[in-house]
């Protein structure tokens, strides 16, 4: 499975692509950070991110995109910008019919370090070790994008099993309701 990991942001947006193999084997294919100047209008910044992501998706052809879910921060304008960048990325994936999954920072940290409250240095160190990189990915946005891709690769089998179980439960619920309706007549 080829996973594109994205750490969304307006100033720095981390992008990565990894290939998942047998078990927990993962290989880094590419990593970079898209930067946009803070003094640029919002629509220009989002266009830069969109164009770059579009190029990455067309070049790397990921099977799935894993994006960090923004759920709480103190600075509302930062949250809005991050969410807007994530939305632009999800839109580019939707245009290509690429599946998108969102993971919280604590899910990502727990997946790569075993600790959902791990610091950036620990995440970077584990990403470097897991991918057998010669040097630590910098800035932290690059390491976070790789961590998101790793997290999704490792969680994908469980996500698929959960979706199958939910579909089976929905089908059983539908049959049960049909039986109840038939018995009531």
Describe the model.
The chain has 185 residues and is of the alpha/beta class. It has one domain: Nucleotidyltransferase, domain 5. Helix content is 56%, strand content 19%. A five-stranded mixed beta sheet has the order 3-2-1-4-5, with helices on both faces. The N and C termini lie far apart (50 Å). It catalyses: Endonucleolytic cleavage at a junction such as a reciprocal single-stranded crossover between two homologous DNA duplexes (Holliday junction). The active site is at residues 7, 68, 141. Belongs to the RuvC family. Keywords: Cytoplasm, DNA damage, DNA recombination, DNA repair, DNA-binding, Endonuclease, Hydrolase, Magnesium, Metal-binding, Nuclease.
Write the layout of secondary structure elements.
Elements: E1 2-7, E2 12-20, E3 26-35, H1 42-60, E4 64-68, H2 76-95, E5 99-103, H3 105-113, H4 120-130, H5 140-184
Parallel strand pairs: 1-4, 4-5
Antiparallel strand pairs: 1-2, 2-3
Please describe the structure with a list of short key phrases separated by commas or semicolons.
185 residues, alpha/beta, five-stranded mixed sheet, 56% helix
